[in-house]
Design brief:
Length: 95
Amino acid sequence: MINNKGQVPLDTFLGIHSKANSKTIPATFKRGIVNAVNIQAGTMDVQIVGNQSSILKGIAVSSAVNLTTAKPGDRCRIDMFSEINPNDCCVAYTY
């Protein structure tokens, strides 16, 4: 777009941000139910809410989660950084 002085204005920050993020896959999150806790490895097995057949095993757990108090049946949030690779995720918190 050219203004009335014949100059092309600089792109706004939002425009630059939108162009950069259109090339990446957005991160998503899912709700889950803890099935098992492995304190030594710092991982959990989690069932995705709404999908009875999918259980993600050995998910890394955020340092914000106290694994000694976590137990099967707790609800949790799973941050998925790539839906193409289900192993690229972590348990963000439990509630």
